């Protein structure tokens, strides 16, 4: 394979590579190899002696964004998932039940945030998301039960443990399931 040595052509190919970062590595390498070949052929047909002639050859190829957008048509691009986006629902779901035992508002916010992040995550399937959401039902029941118990008997009722335990254990089990499902999908 021939290489391109002119600094403007090298910068052009680097710009295409940056724009194509979301493409699969094989597809990105194929696109860069095709463009390199086009540049080499264009320089062979009409030797570029100065900067203006090199720019003219590159302008005929097109804008790097347009080239990558055309290459992306019909192709699914997998966006990278941050480690935080993977861990946040796994932490927030069980913590919601625990926080609910201390502060109902914080428990509710943690539960809602955990479910929203779970559904926003692209790396779990529908089944996994439904299981994770269903696991928050004990948290919701615990929050309502804690509010009712605190209103009728006081905040330090021993029966609160029977409400908080499932509100922590069931989402914790769902978090373990979701963690394993994520690992299976990434392998």
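^ structure tokens above, recovered residues below v
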């Amino acid at each position: 394979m021939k290489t391109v040595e002119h600094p403007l052509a090298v910068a052009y190919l680097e710009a295409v590579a940056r724009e194509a970062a979301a493409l699969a590595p094989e597809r990105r390498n194929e696109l860069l190899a095709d463009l390199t070949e086009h540049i080499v052929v264009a320089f062979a047909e009409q030797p570029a002696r100065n900067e203006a002639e090199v720019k003219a050859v590159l302008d005929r190829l097109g804008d790097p964004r347009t080239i990558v957008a055309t290459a992306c048509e019909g192709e699914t691009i997998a966006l990278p998932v941050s480690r935080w986006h993977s861990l946040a629902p796994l932490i927030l779901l069980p913590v919601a039940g625990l926080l609910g035992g201390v502060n109902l508002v914080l428990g509710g916010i943690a539960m809602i945030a955990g479910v929203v992040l779970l559904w926003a995550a692209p790396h779990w399937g529908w089944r996994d998301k439904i299981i994770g959401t269903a696991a928050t039902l004990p948290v919701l029941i615990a929050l309502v039960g804690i509010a009712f118990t605190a209103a009728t008997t006081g905040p330090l009722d021993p029966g609160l443990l029977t409400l908080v335990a499932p509100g922590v254990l069931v989402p914790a089990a769902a978090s373990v399931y979701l963690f394993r499902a994520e690992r299976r999908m990434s392998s």
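The longest helix spans residues 160-186.
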